[in-house]
Please model this.
Amino acid sequence: MKNTFLSNLNANTKKIWKQSDFNEPTLIQQSVFSPIMGGKDIIAESPTGTGKTVAYLLPIIEKIEEENSSIQTVILAPSRELVMQIYQEVQKWTKGTNIRSASFVGGANIKRQMEKLKTRPQMVVGSPGRILELIKLKKLKMHEVQTIVLDEGDQLLIEEHLDTVRTIVKSAMNDRQLLLFSATAIKEPDQMKAMIGRDPEFMKVDRQQSQTAGPVDHLYLLCEPRDRAKLLQKIAAMNAVKALVFVRDRGNMNVLYEKLKYEKVPVSLLHSELNKSEREKALTALRKGKVTLLLATDIAARGLDIEGLTHVIHYDFPIDLEQYIHRSGRTGRMGKSGTVVSFVTPREERELKKFAKKLHLTVKLSRIYKGNFVESKERK
Model:
């Protein structure tokens, strides 16, 4: 199947594939290529870190008519960060072609974004609110759109975005293709069916089938909430750590941030109130190793892809299994190794073991000894 997938790519895409040091295409990439090329509507579920963006981008790029200057593909994503990440991937994979692309997010100057449309992009990536705004202003024309992608579709179908997404989809022609990609199951698949007006094809790749999730260790430390800042300090002092730390709310995060700064820990934070340049500065600091810890809320970190992230730390325990999956999936991406660390109370320990059982994972009770994680004996 691998050879068939690669042989279907144009010479330019093959060259970029080789430059990216990719070897085997992932299972989701292999599975969706032909159906997308064939114009099928798809709901695809595949674990975080299995290359879903590349899975839909490559066949879409194959289908773009370079001589047609109309918008042919619209990709929607729920957060500014995810829009920018997808846009970077679009730019990477269309380099060497005449395909034009543009990104549109809320909060940015709308007049400047209208200027981008004058370049006649054929591929558009954006947040639902801003895309709909541009459609209503009759600046973004949907009449020749062939494919609409809902990235992190589980988030785009929640109440906050659903009406907007539905309106965008309905603004295109009836025969357009709709693709939905998600790391977790869609709670209301019928909403997708209603939007399309026909049955989509379901594709699911589970964690066992996925060959690209790297070797990820799942550890937990038993501790009381008051001890957690000290433990974070110890983790930050470990060798070559680049960790994303999930904190439930902004108030607690700010208190933790001040504590760590006082202890001279190289730390930054990410929350939804930061402006674009502040967020980019925080992410760049972690990517370049200027800080060891990036504290983040779940909303702010949704869809983040931080290259070389070594650890995900559940400072506050996840509210449910889906949150554990989404957070943990930030490390161990595309075959790289990683470590997931949960700070838990005895009650949360029981919940974590339930998660592990459902996910067929081994979680190890650990402690920090001489700057390393060492396994502890299970309590009876």
